[in-house]
Predict the structure.
Amino acid sequence: MTQDPTDSKPARSGWRTRTLLTHEGIRRSQFGELSEAIFLTQAFAYPSAEAAEARFTGEDPGFIYARYGNPTVAMFEDRLAALEGAEACFATASGMAAVSAAILSQVQAGDRVVASKALFGSCLYILENLLPRYGVETIFVDGADLDAWRAAFKGGARTAFIETPANPTLDLVDIRAVSALAHEAGATLIVDNAFASPIFQHPLRLGADVVVYSATKHIDGQGRVLGGAVLGTTKFIRETLEPFIKHTGGALNPFSAWLLLKSLETLDLRVRAQAEAAALLAEALAGSPKLTKLVYPGRADHPHHAVAKAQMEGGGTMLSVEVADQAAAFRVMNALRIFTISNNLGDAKSIVTHPATTTHQRLTPEKRAELGVSPGLLRLSAGLEDPEDLVEDFQTALKAV
């Protein structure tokens, strides 16, 4: 995003996470405000015609237009980039704006994309429905099968796309291994890191080229605004992604950026507390005769637990459980008193979602079965309530099965 590099604090590489999330990227006006300011402006004024010309030619790197850049948005981008360990970041209007821009800015007719099968429904729409309209082919593979990735890359690819952990099955993909295979094929690797959050997983350190977030989830964490972000090298963000977003209009607005910026201050505290609650809930529910399946990356019985231990710093805030069928799932959901029925996640409030009838409802029953989205599957997002209350709430609700 276009910005003036002289009006912000330099990066503090020695700072630890919580300090960085409180202070990184601050830009103060002439008034010296303590809390970061919201610059609610569409455009910017220039002292002269020559100054305007210099701004548009790039000779002066200052701000031009809110779709191109904004001081409040720039603070959010700088702070998130520092947390992620990325050279650059571009904030977007939503998580799906981040995903679509990260993919579409790279491809053209005749290209191939390789992707894991287990993906959020809207991501599947982009890869299955949208890209073919523009002559781009997508090859889907089992994300955990490295031989399948190897075979798919033999035909060449422009980029690859994965979610890990995946929504809603919590399948994991070995980022380091897949990135190596992608690079051998001359492809880039995009990782949707929304489920793990930037606290528990660092894809760029594992070899990924691009990381995308739905900032709507853990980064906001309080159910208030939509937002997204794409992170990577300065070359990719400035030369490939930024022109695409500038001219297609998916930039983040300043007010949402300010809320997300302030949310970053508590991100580490919130996500770690939520992960502790998720782990306790998984432990309490494990072995319940009412459940046919329980999946949590932090447990040794997760099918990809070895990958989780290698690339995640915690089990995360999400778990999935399965009951006999949709009717049983609905009875459990309707009996819950603390968990809120919604399709969001990463929120301060604990949330329960029935993917088969919400986030993945547009898929055919056969496709849902292939992805592991059964009629009895429930996705749980642990919030900031007392973990013991969450355990009691869910155990009581299971009696309705």
Notes: DSSP finds 14 helices and twelve strands in the chain. The two ends are 51 Å apart (CA to CA).
